[in-house]
Amino acid sequence: MTSTAQDSQLTIAGKTYRSRLLVGSGKYRDLQQTRDATLAAGAEIITVAIRRVNIGQDPHAPNLLDAVPPSEFTILPNTAGCYNAADAVYTLQLARELLNGHKLVKLEVLGDEKTLFPNMPETLKAAETLVRDGFDVMVYCSDDPIQAKMLEQIGCVAVMPLASLIGSGMGILNPWNLSLIIEQATVPVLVDAGVGTASDAAIAMELGCDGVLMNTAIAGARDPILMARAMRLAVEAGRAAFLAGRIPKRFAASPSSPVAGRPT
Hints:
Layout: E1 10-12, E2 15-17, E3 21-24, H1 31-41, E4 45-49, H2 64-67, E5 74-78, H3 85-98, E6 104-107, H4 120-132, E7 136-141, H5 145-154, E8 158-161, H6 175-184, E9 190-192, H7 198-206, E10 211-214, H8 216-219, H9 224-244
Parallel strand pairs: 3-4, 3-10, 4-5, 6-7, 7-8, 9-10
Antiparallel strand pairs: 1-2
Helix pairs in contact: 1-9, 3-4, 4-5, 5-6, 7-9
């Protein structure tokens, strides 16, 4: 009998996590709000855009690591703002130096500034280089099952297809492609980008995703701390529903109370 108590934990690159909700560190009012929202979300992994957030590059500016220290959270440096493989690889090599040899990273190579859709040829190229260089690569990608499988075969430790455009809040636009990726994957599949509210996160988990990563949906909410709590509950509820197994959809009614033994 399956229950959430018996559910296996999320494992990425050999490390297990209790929470299946990953959060970003951008767009908050200040570092204190970043910390408060991360704690409210129950997140253990927080992504950091190396090109935009100070984690030691500037000794004269506030350091994000003072608010979310590596002793409490797994820091996941990412390559937001990179549009080619070379820039992405260099950015993560810098992150490894700043974080004392940290290997777990999030790769994203963008195609253009308007859609922020992934540039998959450059993503594949960067992934090959980073894996050869000893990185544990979680990778933002299109919701193309073939490309996702190629990234897994390269050696990426998790694939992260977008639900919809980054920061759009449009939710999961193509659940069928996402389901195909989940069905074939032997590494964790996490929805990345496009989540707008708690129901989007729950749907991703009900489909069988191993986790969800979000930033704007929390940081851009009217009350980020309350939204962080809502997302935490949504991910937990969606996972529980996936494990429980939903009833099949039917085109006919089915009585919810017993009919056996009733007089005719």
